């Protein structure tokens, strides 16, 4: 298989041996005097120090010169490994002052110059080396430099020279063919590839490159045929599988692309690029269950790919494989211990499995500066609330948490206090719920929804005037708030106050929200209150159709049937209301109504 020409690969090849001989002569290490990393040095540049050291050595002292060159060569090699090409090139340059004819060091020097983008200087060295050595590797690098300098003809001549001396050179063949194709000399390119293929049978690379050239020409069908041929020659030739799959993907033939990729994976199960393509297709198709085994394999190949691990963790969670999801997010957390998203995901997973203390622990580690800090604290409060409902002793933890966070973080204050008010309401401590709302009613984030809930709580403790004041305030700001209109209208209706205004408010609310079952029920209840039971039945039936699980609406429907003397239907809906009761007070109320209905004697005609 042809790999892309890589300087690092070529350097590895070039470093197989060295002509530099080390000596055991004791002298002062010149590197200690020239290292630019060492502290305490004066401001002279490294080059000046090297030049001074070199000039101080007697040209006839071959032993000292050899030691100087050896030490600089080692230092240059070290700099090269560290990726410091500027320093490496400088050291190699001074090595060559001593060992001018050392071809190996010249190669190393040329490679560092290429890395520094000093291509013209590198070209001169490589041209001389290629002429003297006639090395395939040196020739390929030289041709690559010519190409980079846009010297196409010179590059082609070098490739032709390589093929003359090394007829089986795949790299020279395909790069020369590519060069021809870029000049639109397609016939010449194909002729070259065919010739190379005949002399190197069993090589999939040539069909693949014909396909690549056809892609560039826009001949997709021909490209497809060449990629298929390449895979027939070598079923493990990955580039051909990627090329053929890409054609199918471009044509939206995802099943065909998957067939190519999965067939390839049977031969090469750990092909990274192919696995990524399969995962992307299944994600695009929404077949997340199919993604998991491929994502697992890919994650095992590259355990450093944290993005893939996150996606795999989310897939596990979506598949309800919570323990697997926890495991992979914990792995990620080792690599990024302060990741707010990972901490939040872990909190969510432990919450999902009912391990509330662990969930709270992870949520509490989300840093304050994170965009998830707010939501994490709300989740903690909700978990503490759930614990407080089941364990009375946990109530103090909830109250303490809300007070501490609400006092410290203004952006959390309203939401946490409302949540605590809801807890008190469920506990039946309505005055405590009202007190919580009183603490935040002047906050900037106290919105209409909060005001509406505040009014509902006030009404429950029979502070109707205060509740009315809050609702009237909402209507001043927003005269067309359907919920506020309905709230005020229904409250007036229940107290038998100003029924005309109650009807106006409720009718307006129905007009704004005709499909809201609760508002529609209020209109029906108005008709019930004034004795127009047929009209009441029409509206409340509509309301029940919209919200058939609400106890109050179901009870209203039963009561209306009773008034119309349709006792069987009335009993049916009382029983239905009983099924939906969530608190004991609701259940007692419905049973009382049902008991009164049972005492009635039905006429014989019924």
Automatic annotation (TrEMBL):
SUPFAM superfamilies: TPR-like. It comes from Halobacteriovorax marinus (strain ATCC BAA-682 / DSM 15412 / SJ). The keyword Plastid does not apply. Keywords: TPR repeat. The keyword Transcription does not apply. Pfam families: TPR_16, TPR_8. TPR repeats lie at residues 204-237, 238-271. This is Exported protein.
